[in-house]
Amino acid sequence: MKRILVVEDDKNVALALTVRLRAAGYEATVAYDATSVVPAATRAKPDLILLDISMPGGGGLVAAQRLRSLAPLATIPFIVVTASKKPELKQEAMALGAAAFFEKPYDAAELLSAITSALSTEPTLARA
Fold it and tell me: Which residues sit opposite 79 in a β-bridge?
């Protein structure tokens, strides 16, 4: 079973995402701010990370930079899911290596399709 780390500060959104992911056959865990991304990813060893942009602890782009700077976590694909409408955020996220970018509200089927695609084309974290 593929593991997905959901990084989302809104507990209702995080719950909705984890329910949807589990229904689709994924194992889902949650981190609620940018500062907990690295420890959570180290513990959970996810195959993919769903990353919000606007959240406490530096935000999703800072968290993505941290992940990319650490060899054991650098190859985990991530997908951005954000409520922000700032046009430059997509470009910044893609420059950091985002596999996809979604603005809330997003189409659940499109998100699941992007997850499937990212999991089939990106290298995953080696399991300890």
Answer: 50, 100
* pTM, full prediction: 0.90
- Report cis status (omega within 30 of 0) of the bond before 105: yes
Considering the chain, what is the average pLDDT of its residues?
91
Please say if the pLDDT value at position 17 is more than 50: yes
Can you say whether residue 59 is alpha, beta or left, with left for phi > 0 and alpha for psi between -120 and 50 degrees?
left
Contact 41, 63 (CB under 8 A): no
Q: Which CATH number fits domain 3-121: 3.30.565.10, 3.40.50.2300, 3.10.450.50, 2.60.120.10?
A: 3.40.50.2300
Where are the extended beta strands (E) located within the chain? 3-7, 27-31, 48-51, 78-82, 100-103
* DSSP run (H or E) holding 97: none
